[in-house]
Write a structure and sequence with these properties.
Number of domains: 2
Radius of gyration: 19 Å
CATH architecture of the largest domain: Orthogonal Bundle
CATH topology of the largest domain: Arc Repressor Mutant, subunit A
CATH class of the largest domain: Mainly Alpha
Shape: flat
CATH superfamily of the largest domain: Winged helix-like DNA-binding domain superfamily/Winged helix DNA-binding domain
Length: 136
């Protein structure tokens, strides 16, 4: 079993070196196993939480799915397919000054915002198309 402290670099490398946009903890565990690392789930959780606390990784909260994690970088928001769980980055939908104004109107001091729009991706839409009627 890999020690948590030895997982920091492999996890950061994994998050940085993939075409996948964001990872669940289970995704991270499965991919690390393909790299001959066998961490337990709690070790991955502790390392990812540490990276979030350090600001090196962002947590993306999803309504009906486990949270996802991505490397910190330029702010963006997300589209989330509620059928296949695809997560797609999109440019920021609420400019910071607009978000600040909304927060200040309610007496909040805004630290960050995370917008996730739930819907159905093009692939899943095609899969849900009704079967055409066969000619009689």
């Amino acid at each position: 079993m890999a020690r948590a402290s030895k997982l920091i670099e492999p996890i950061l490398t994994l998050l940085a070196g993939s075409t996948r946009h964001a990872w669940s903890l289970e995704d991270i565990r499965q991919d690390l196993r393909t790299r001959d690392l066998t961490p337990d789930f709690s070790s991955i959780f502790r390392v990812v939480e540490q990276l979030v606390a350090q600001g090196r990784v962002n947590r993306i909260h999803l309504a009906d799915a486990p949270p996802r994690f991505e490397l910190s970088g330029a702010h963006h928001d997300h589209l989330h397919c509620t059928l296949c769980d695809l997560l797609v980055p999109v440019p920021c939908l609420a400019p910071h000054n607009l978000a600040d104004q909304a927060a200040q109107a309610q007496g909040f001091a805004l630290h960050a915002h995370n917008i996730v729009l739930d819907g159905v991706c093009p692939h899943c839409q095609l899969q849900r198309q009704p079967r055409p009627e066969l000619p009689a």
